[in-house]
């Protein structure tokens, strides 16, 4: 049993979810109020669990819910139980329809829109300029990224509703039906995920972005693995380090802690050419990079010989399906590619893109998926 005041707060929260993109139907909102009446509105955990169970219909909804919940209730007194009106046994507050005719007041809507707008601004800000609090908030937003593995065609065919006629299967079906072909069977070339390789620069010049880049690599590793794909991640500094095994842990904090314990050259120098040569000699040419989509996250500051880096980038381009170079400086309006490393690899890159914010990471993920 919850009071009308609590009903209004909960319905305002439902409206906030709709603004954030969660398609909450009126029946789900009614179920949410009933669930809160059972678990009690005096504990944040109870309201949180009741909302996740009743208001969310997909993994995307869960991610948005987890972002909106703390942001919304931090502006209120929090879930609490008001004095009970014994004449009522269930919540009977009017539910807002899809058009929001009976939603919260105008002032409440402005607060909700401000919260969502603040999240959008945070997604677009340069990571190097964020405060410690903003970095902690940004870490939770990586769950909103949904990387997909790029697909390649295989030699084998699979059944499909359109495409070329599968003569063999059409004839076998006809024989089972007494020799009469009632329907043409069709097929298409099969699809398999391509391997994705991430080379993350963790040198001193990339120190401000290293944590976010490894969080992005972890998100790609976990999400792609669930879809049957493979992501291999290496850190690049004064040496090359393979950190894929550490990033396969589902929990991002544990994964980053394990990766941090694996990498010996944090915030050191940059030897892109030598590291890329080691990668190609040990992992690339034997098969890992062949036909893969390779993404390099680096600002291009090279302490070694740029000619060596150019030669290794040319080797990589010959065996990889796509080479994408993401630099944080590309996100600045006045940026010009003048670094020696960037000038050496530009002729051998398929795409040269920004890598300075969460929004830029989302664009990189989409570019990889389309490769």
TrEMBL record:
Please give the SUPFAM superfamilies that the UniProt record associates with this protein. vWA-like
**Annotated Gene3D superfamilies:** von Willebrand factor, type A domain
Matching entries from Pfam families are given as:
VWA_CoxE (PF05762)
Q: Which residues form the VWFA domain?
A: 193-369
Region: Disordered; residue ranges are 78-108
SMART domains linked to this entry: VWA
What name appears for this protein in its UniProt entry?
A: VWA domain-containing protein
Protein's organism: Nakamurella flava
């Amino acid at each position: 049993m919850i009071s009308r005041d609590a009903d209004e707060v909960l319905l305002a929260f439902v409206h906030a979810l709709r603004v954030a993109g969660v398609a909450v139907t009126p029946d789900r909102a009614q179920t949410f109020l009933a669930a809160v009446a059972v678990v009690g509105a005096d504990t944040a955990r109870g309201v949180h669990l009741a909302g996740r169970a009743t208001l969310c219909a997909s993994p995307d909804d869960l991610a948005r819910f987890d972002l909106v919940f703390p942001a919304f209730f931090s502006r209120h007194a929090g879930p609490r139980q008001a004095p009970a009106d014994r004449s009522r046994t269930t919540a009977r507050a009017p539910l807002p329809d899809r058009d929001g005719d009976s939603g919260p007041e105008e002032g409440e809507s402005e607060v909700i829109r401000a919260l969502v707008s603040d999240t959008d601004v945070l997604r677009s800000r340069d990571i190097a300029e964020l405060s410690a609090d903003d970095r902690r908030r940004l870490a939770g937003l990586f769950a909103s990224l949904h990387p997909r593995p790029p697909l390649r065609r295989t030699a084998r065919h699979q059944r499909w509703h359109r495409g070329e006629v599968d003569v063999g299967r059409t004839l076998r079906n006809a024989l089972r039906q007494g020799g009469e072909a009632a329907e043409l069977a069709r097929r298409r070339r099969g699809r398999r995920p391509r391997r994705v390789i991430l080379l993350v620069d963790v040198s001193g010049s990339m120190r401000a972005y290293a944590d976010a880049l490894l969080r992005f690599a972890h998100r790609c590793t976990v999400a792609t693995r669930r879809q049957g794909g493979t992501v291999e991640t290496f850190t690049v500094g004064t040496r090359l380090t393979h950190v894929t095994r550490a990033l396969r842990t589902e929990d991002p904090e544990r994964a980053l802690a394990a990766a941090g314990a694996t990498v010996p050259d944090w915030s050191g120098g940059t030897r892109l050419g030598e590291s890329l040569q080691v990668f190609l000699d040990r992992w690339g040419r034997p098969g890992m990079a062949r036909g893969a989509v390779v993404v390099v996250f680096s600002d291009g500051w090279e302490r070694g010989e740029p000619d060596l880096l150019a030669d290794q980038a040319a080797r990589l381009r010959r065996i990889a399906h796509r080479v994408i170079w993401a630099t944080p400086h590309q996100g600045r309006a006045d940026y010009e590619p003048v670094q020696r490393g960037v000038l050496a690899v530009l002729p051998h890159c398929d795409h040269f893109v920004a890598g300075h914010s969460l929004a830029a990471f989302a664009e990189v993920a989409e570019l990889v998926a389309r490769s």
